[in-house]
TrEMBL record:
Keyword Hydrolase on entry: yes
InterPro entries cross-referenced by the UniProt entry: 6-hairpin_glycosidase_sf (IPR008928), 6hp_glycosidase-like_sf (IPR012341), Glycoside_hydrolase_63 (IPR004888), MGH1-like_GH (IPR054491)
GO biological process: oligosaccharide metabolic process; protein N-linked glycosylation
Protein's UniProt name: Mannosylglycerate hydrolase MGH1-like glycoside hydrolase domain-containing protein
SUPFAM superfamilies: Six-hairpin glycosidases (SSF48208)
Species whose genome carries this gene: Ruegeria faecimaris
Taxonomic lineage of the native organism: Bacteria, Pseudomonadati, Pseudomonadota, Alphaproteobacteria, Rhodobacterales
Pfam families found in the cross-reference section: MGH1-like_GH
Highest taxon of the lineage: Bacteria
Length: 419
């Protein structure tokens, strides 16, 4: 059974392989996405190590001069996706968006390095990639944490990778939608509109893009100028873990100065993460930096922080919180607490279960003495695959497949879990 699933997963990945990068799924997402690529590299690493490195190399080749790594790289023209390059107008030779996505690349590189048998080859590839990933991390702490709190903010919901999470509702209330150019969504022609963000949310997304574009995509200005400025525990957790992984890798490469810089960023971030602990919910929650308060939204972002090697007492509490969620749905981990009024079992990041987040949470819990819960999450993930195939995400009650089909990172996670 496992081998059959691995073979199928490999087929999905190969179907979305464009040679030097993968698309998340043909049709709905015809370009290279940042955190999709880093996670897909993990899948490749089990059957084609060279291709795994190439995936991350292609991503990092499109880093901006200031260190930012964009969230989409528009390698080939394709008008099947909105908003395309003509909306972003970032003026790059190969067009990209002007915002970023979760910093998974450092975490992925650590695994690629460990798994590459010929360490001379691994070191050679790493020597070129690691300074780029480190520069990205430094960019985060410079331009997305200008007051040096230890926690970075996102300025657009798309940066989080959890586009329409309930976490962003309050922040989006501060985004005016007047004056945007009329547009036609393309996502709803590929996927069921009931599974996608609402039109109102799309207007906010586009308003922010047009606003940042008007500021010339100058990252030195965007954080303070944005009406949407949210500190997400999951996003920060991934960055903290990647900084630690970069520190380890820099030690392997014999670069003590990079190692100590990266370690210092991780240590400061991990200490600051504590300020996002929400004792009422027993999980981390988002801090609305624009409004100046900790939110109470019970979303998966606060569980995803488990990836950051959090204190054992916190990991234990997160495992207990997930056990509670298990009583409220059929398949862990729902992206929003099913007993909260805003939960929607079908609508994207407002309830459905996603394999990539499951994997990242389980990976973190497994390192924090919560192996039993990690195994339970992975077992639920495989039950979903067996029931509903390689979907973009799943209804956490029925296990029904949602969004796009034949999804690259879902397939990559299956290989990662089963190998
Ligand atoms: C916007 C590609 C991406 C993922 C995100 C997911 C979704 C895009 C969209 O698809 O976002 O970036 O248009 O819906 O939310 O996590 O990287 O798979």
């Amino acid at each position: 059974m496992s081998q059959a699933l691995i073979d199928q997963a490999r087929g999905v990945m190969e179907g979305n392989d464009r040679g030097t990068y993968t698309v998340p799924t043909h049709g709905l997402y015809p370009f290279q996405w940042n955190w999709d690529s880093a996670l897909s590299a993990l899948g490749f690493s089990h059957f084609d190590m060279d291709r795994a490195w190439v995936e991350v190399e292609t991503l990092m080749a499109h880093q901006w001069d200031d260190g930012m790594v964009p969230h989409i790289i528009f390698h080939e023209p394709d008008d099947g996706y909105f908003p395309g390059p003509n909306v972003w107008q970032t003026r790059r030779d190969v067009p990209t968006t002007g915002i970023t996505q979760p910093a998974v690349a450092g975490f992925a590189l650590r695994k690629l390095y460990d798994r590459t048998e010929d360490k001379a080859v691994a070191r050679e590839r790493l020597a070129k990639l690691l300074p780029k990933v480190h520069a990205w991390h430094k960019w985060f702490y410079r331009d997305r944490d200008p007051k040096s709190t230890g926690l970075v903010a996102i300025i657009h919901p798309w940066e989080s990778g959890r586009d329409n999470s309930v976490d962003w509702d309050e922040g989006l209330d501060a985004v005016p939608i007047e004056g945007i150019a009329p547009f036609t969504r393309r996502d709803t022609t590929h996927a069921n509109p009931d599974h996608r963000p609402s039109d109102e949310q799309y207007k906010c997304y586009i308003w922010l893009v047009e606003y940042f574009r008007g500021l010339g995509w100058d990252n030195a200005k965007l954080h303070d100028a944005s009406p949407f400025c949210l500190v997400d525990p999951g996003f920060n957790g991934i960055l903290i873990r990647s900084c630690d992984d970069v520190a380890d890798l820099a030690e392997f490469l014999g670069d003590p100065s990079m190692a100590s810089e990266a370690r210092a960023m991780a240590t400061k971030g991990r200490a600051a993460l504590e300020s996002l602990w929400n004792p009422t919910l027993g999980q981390y929650t988002c801090y609305n930096r624009a409004a100046g308060h900790l939110q109470d939204t019970p979303s998966i972002g606060g569980l995803l922080a488990a990836i950051a090697d959090v204190p054992h007492a916190r990991a234990d509490a997160l495992a207990r919180r997930i056990a509670l969620l298990a009583e409220r749905c059929g398949y862990l981990v729902p992206s929003h607490d099913p007993i909260d009024g805003a939960f929607d079992s079908l609508r994207y990041w407002r309830g459905p279960t996603w394999l990539i987040v499951n994997y990242l949470i389980a990976e973190g819990l497994g390192r924090s003495e919560q192996g039993a819960m990690a195994q339970r999450i992975l077992a639920d993930s495989l039950r979903l695959i067996e029931k509903s195939g390689f979907a973009e995400y799943y209804d956490p009650n029925s296990g029904e497949p949602c969004g796009g089909g034949d999804f690259t990172w879902t397939a990559a996670m299956v290989i990662e879990i089963l190998k």
